[in-house]
Amino acid sequence: xxxxxxxxxxxxxxxxxxxxxxxxxxxxxxxxxxxxxxxxxxxxxxxxxxxxxxxxxxxxxxxxxxxxxxxxxxxxxxxxxxxxxxxxxxxxxxxxxxxxxxxxxxxxxxxxxxxxxxxxxxxxxxxxxxxxxxxxxxxxxxxxxxxxxxxxxxxxxxxxxxxxxxxxxxxxxxxxxxxxxxxxxxxxxxxxxxxxxxxxxxxxxxxxxxxxxxxxxxxxxxxxxxxxxxxxxxxxxxxxxxxxxxxxxxxxxxxxxxxxxxxxxxxxxxxxxxxxxxxxxxxxxxxxxxxxxxxxxxxxxxxxxxxxxxxxxxxxxxxxxxxxxxxxxxxxxxxxxxxxxxxxxxxxxxxxxxxxxxxxxxxxxxxxxxxxxxxxxxxxxxxxxxxxxxxxxxxxxxxxxxxxxxxxxxxxxxxxxxxxxxxxxxxxxxxxxxxxxxxxxx
Length: 442
What we know:
It is an enzyme of class 2 (transferase). Belongs to the class I-like SAM-binding methyltransferase superfamily. RsmB/NOP family. The strands form two sheets. A seven-stranded mixed sheet has the order 7-6-5-8-9-11-10, with helices on both faces. Strands 2-3-1-4 form a four-stranded antiparallel sheet, covered by helices on one side. It is built from 17 helices and eleven strands. Helix 1 crosses helix 3, helix 1 crosses helix 6 and helix 5 crosses helix 7. With 442 residues, it is of the alpha/beta class. The protein is globular and about 70 Å long.
């Protein structure tokens, strides 16, 4: 059992602020970046756990709180504390999420109440938080019975999301929802332009770090660790990249001297992979100049910033502002999407998205693809990539593209890859991705 930290109340409050921000439409990544450094690790662990179980938290809170508090932070604190109290009261630990933070019920209630005293605007909610948690302790069994048939509480996804997966994947929707709540492994892609997977694995072994190879250049760590502490970080030996994302660059069949465009490039994982595979002339395009700075930072760490690499902060929709008129041999179109395939890594996504987002992103994707197709050379390739599992952002998008462009021919590519749990044959598992590859007929 974890010992109660003297800053548990502070961590609870920091996590509650992050959760409240998600409920207000802000991503966890963004809000946690604003959390004080000493609280960030504990707040992140608590907030991520809550997001994976937030459907249950909402259902329980709805039963116990007759009128939602005017403070979103208090509402989030109550939901988070209810989840943690439920964990604390479980006798069978085997039924729990392996990453569930475990405290004693007494300590959890005490520290949750104390959290309201750390901010002037929350002081008057001390009694409410105490009363709600005490009632849950008394009526836990009845409350669980009352929410047993609530789909959002059971699957911890919004109802519209559940229905969308039921429609698209009638035989697999339950597995997809379950997989979304698993903890992803730490997967790396070895930078084969500066080292080999065998050399990296040897360095890890010497440091007592177990890593299993997969794919052409992948490694999956048995236990996640801070990435900057791993051998070879400063030397640029590897990048963090999901197994599904590592399939993108090889599909383009890159050769030295090719003229390549990586549209929507940030944060630069696929950009780097293409440069590792071949000495190409590459333009990395992204509308967000701040995110493009991250691309440059990654390329510099990997020793890939060289002549022939150009970073451009501009929209893919406005090619007249960045294209020099010379067509590209290969275009990687990792277009914006709902990110529904990567919710195991970003559990807040399911609570940030709205039903209308699918149609809106699909419309944006169409516009971007049509714009990028105009810069593809005859005989050149365009690779459509999304980290989505909604068909509107995948197969339906690819088919509509073919209907709009008579010169496009579809080539073999993986198509829709659903999120996969790790097993003996796939030690890294993978997130959900969609791939469609097109060539422009001469």
